[in-house]
Amino acid sequence: MHLIESTLFNSVSQYPDMPLVIAYSGGVDSQVLLHALAILNKKKRVLNPIVVCHVNHGISQNSAAWQAFAEQACSKLKLSLKICQVNVQAQPQQSLEALARDARYQALQAINTGPSLIITGHHSDDQAETFLLALKRGSGLKGLSAMSSQTRQGKDVLLRPLLNITRAQILEYAQQLQLSWVEDESNIDTCFDRNFLRNDIIPLLINRWPSIVNTINRSSDHCREGQLLLDELAADDLNHCQYDSKSLSVEPLKQLSQSRFNNLIRYFLAQHQCLMPNTEQLAQSHLQLNAANDKTPTVKVGEHYLRRYKGVLYLTTQFEDVSNWLVELDLSDNESFIELPDHLGKLHFVKAVFDNVQKATQRIVLPTKAQKVTLRFSHNNPSCLPDYRNHSRSLKKVLQELNIPTWQRKRIPFLYYDDEFVAAIGFFVCQSYVVKESQPSLHISWDF
What we know:
The chain is 37% helix and 21% strand.
């Protein structure tokens, strides 16, 4: 068995029950991947169901010809082919190459509804290029780890079984099988950083140091091992610092060094699929841990925010201004729903004579037919007497008393009958609207 075939067999055999999705462009790497797997399938060494996926980006004038080539290749091998058309548009400050890659992976993951083994033809030369690109960006250990041989992506496993195979070995195998393949004309365009490295820089490095690709990949492996150790440390720190799933306790965070704090925050953000912060954002976040207790400092990290309130550091999204939102409720039916803005979920209202409603967060006296019922996020700071208090206070003071973070106070739906404040949904009901035994009531639940 050829080295490429045995390498593929050893990788795929770890997942004997998962259907294979082969990423197939028609280039030499994917052509070798396709034919080697077809040989293993014919010899019954690989018994997984196989689907070949060709993604047509529509970027090149040769896209239609490449698609036709893919159709002919799969027809000869009697393998099922799925053509995925994607529309990739250039975006400001975003690499067209990165946008095309993201669209490609989305298409591959959409092939099967269940878990799949997605296989690509990336090899050791690709790995060296990825390492150098990360080095150019000033990446840390995670970026310098380059590509992993296998990665969990949602329901799927992304497998790169040929990372220890060189481009020269792939070409040799293709020539041995007398394969033909397509050549993407953009591969010679050195305006793209990867092509500049591949065509201009790496050949110079190999000419000076013939084993440079192997040594770069060895460095990448060392970086990956170092990142695993950092992740283990971060997991342990998170165990000591976590307040809840999306927040951290400030006091244990303050005991960490700046480097250890940075490592934990990156790990915490990665768990929530956030963009990584830069060095300045991390330094600012660490500095704000020591802000005065009456302050609520906020640091933007990617598309998210780290917000400190009292002794807790919260991770939140960027909020829309909902202060002008107001809706009038129609309670003519026994059951109604209100969709809240800015991903705040849905309110469920049920009219009931007895306490016979499950999952009710609050029970409130039913309004009269003459009363107008509204929901809003703004208020004029009315004096109120919550169901748990003995004396009235202003609404602002009550919300402070409940230790609700300042930004959340602007995102609480307030219930009004006419212009009288009735309840802060999810927190309290004013005493004059608390339901007495067997009194008709309005049950409210809040589903996020």
